[in-house]
Specification:
Number of strands: 12
Radius of gyration: 20 Å
Helix content: 25-40%
CATH superfamily of the largest domain: DD-peptidase/beta-lactamase superfamily
Shape: globular
Strand order of the largest sheet: 3-2-1-12-11-10-9-8
CATH class of the largest domain: Alpha Beta
Structural class: alpha+beta
CATH topology of the largest domain: Beta-lactamase
Length: 414
């Protein structure tokens, strides 16, 4: 809930760019890994039309199969108003694509026996011990668990998408202007849950709370933990919670100013939002995605074990979980609803049925997106990774994401 020249010339450019910054190795030819060069040109033209139609200012698309890139395409403008061309290493606000990274951080701690994902959140954050449910203050039927945070069944909300009394409390509290993640989470814990834990999939601040759990369990702030244990080892050199001064010239900008509560990208934030505060590049996120596809390892660096990745990418929603919440329905094809043949794992949406969904894919593929227009998915059956980086108007996201899935798979011919 799409980011100038003939295709062979583009591919040569991608190969030459390999020396400039860390990226996945490139295939000699798209055909070597089952893609059609001719059909990939259709993919590029679709994104170029989005730029020309002003649906997006520009886009960067990475497609990799069998660990080799077949496309690393930069199209349009990094900033249309300044006529700055898009670059392969342009930096994007990835919004909720921060969530999979934060969830991986938590699973690292689980593998080190520092975090029990089946334990109550209050074991790590005592402020949640007395939390109630609803404006009426009903007692929870069971504690919220760390697993609930990872699969959005915690009962928490965002306060951005609904208008219930609890949502109104969130908006009044202005939690994203807190002075630290610890302060934000303590404020959240003073407000009631929107749902009973485990009873509904509700998109929420769950991953921000999970980020605070990571801080408590690790003894590090979330920014440091992610840098030392994920971004650094994977050579995701442009991924983090703010854009360093030397890289500001590579920051992609939307055509219109966002009204979302985002911090200044040029300043280290007081609050590290594990749910939506990160920046990255298409190349960086492709490395992260390839690590997931490889079962937790990339280029000899192991982040997680294969069985942990299998757990994260499995269907984690019980059959009686209410999934038809407003955000789930608004997400359309990527929402975790039975009508779309989609569910949710730990940190990602997971496809559980070949049919019902309007976009192509495979049973077992997993994905997520950001409200700024960014989108990624991993298809283990096809050994495929795709990462789209755009900064688009919120209203066009669904169209862009559906187009991306269709145009990537139409170019896969073997």
């Amino acid at each position: 809930m799409l980011r100038h020249s003939k295709f062979p010339m583009f591919l040569a450019g991608a190969l030459c760019a390999a020396v400039a910054f860390a990226q996945l190795p490139a295939a000699n030819r798209p055909e070597d890994v089952g893609f059609s060069s001719k059909r990939l040109e259709k993919t590029r033209q679709a994104f170029k039309a989005d730029v020309d139609n002003k649906t997006v200012p520009g886009a960067v698309l990475v497609i990799a199969r069998n660990g080799k890139m077949v496309t690393y395409d930069a199209i349009g403008y990094q900033e249309r108003a300044a006529q700055t061309p898009m670059k392969k290493d342009s930096i994007f606000r990835v919004a909720s694509m921060s969530k999979p990274i934060t969830t991986v951080a938590a699973m690292i701690l689980a593998e080190e026996n520092k975090l029990d994902i089946g334990a109550p959140v209050a074991q790590y954050l005592p402020e949640f011990r007395s939390v109630k449910v609803g404006a009426e203050g009903v007692a929870p039927k069971r504690p919220m668990t760390v697993q609930d945070l990872m699969r959005h069944t915690s009962g928490l909300t965002y306060g951005l998408f609904g208008n219930s009394p609890v949502d109104q409390m969130y908006r009044k509290a202005d939690i994203f202007n807190s002075k630290s993640l610890a302060e934000m989470v303590k404020t959240v814990a003073t407000m009631p849950l929107l749902h009973q834990p485990g009873e509904a999939w509700e998109y929420s601040v769950s991953t921000d709370v999970l980020g605070r759990v990571v801080e408590v369990a690790s003894g590090m702030d979330l920014d440091t933990f992610i840098q030392e244990r994920i971004a650094g080892p994977l050579k995701m050199n442009d991924t983090g919670f703010w854009v360093k001064p030397a890289a500001i010239s590579r920051l992609a900008k939307p055509d219109a100013k966002s009204n979302l509560p985002f911090a200044d990208p040029t300043v280290k934030p007081d609050l590290f939002s594990g749910g939506g505060g990160m920046f990255s590049t298409a190349g960086d996120y492709a490395r992260f995605s390839q690590m997931l596809l490889n079962g937790g390892e990339l280029e000899g660096v192991r982040i997680l074990g294969p069985k942990t990745i299998a757990l994260m990418t499995s269907d984690q929603l019980p059959s009686n979980t209410e999934r038809h919440t407003p955000v789930a329905m608004a997400l359309g094809f990527s929402g975790p609803t039975p009508e779309m043949g989609t569910s949710f794992g730990l940190g990602f949406a997971v496809r559980v049925d070949a049919g019902r969904n309007p976009v192509p894919g495979s049973i077992g593929d997993f994905s997520w997106a950001g409200i700024t227009g960014t989108y990624f998915w991993v298809d283990p059956k096809e050994k495929l990774v795709a990462v789209l980086m755009v900064q688009s108007p919120q209203g066009s996201n669904g169209l862009i994401w559906r187009q991306t899935r269709t145009m990537v798979y139409q170019a896969l011919v073997n």
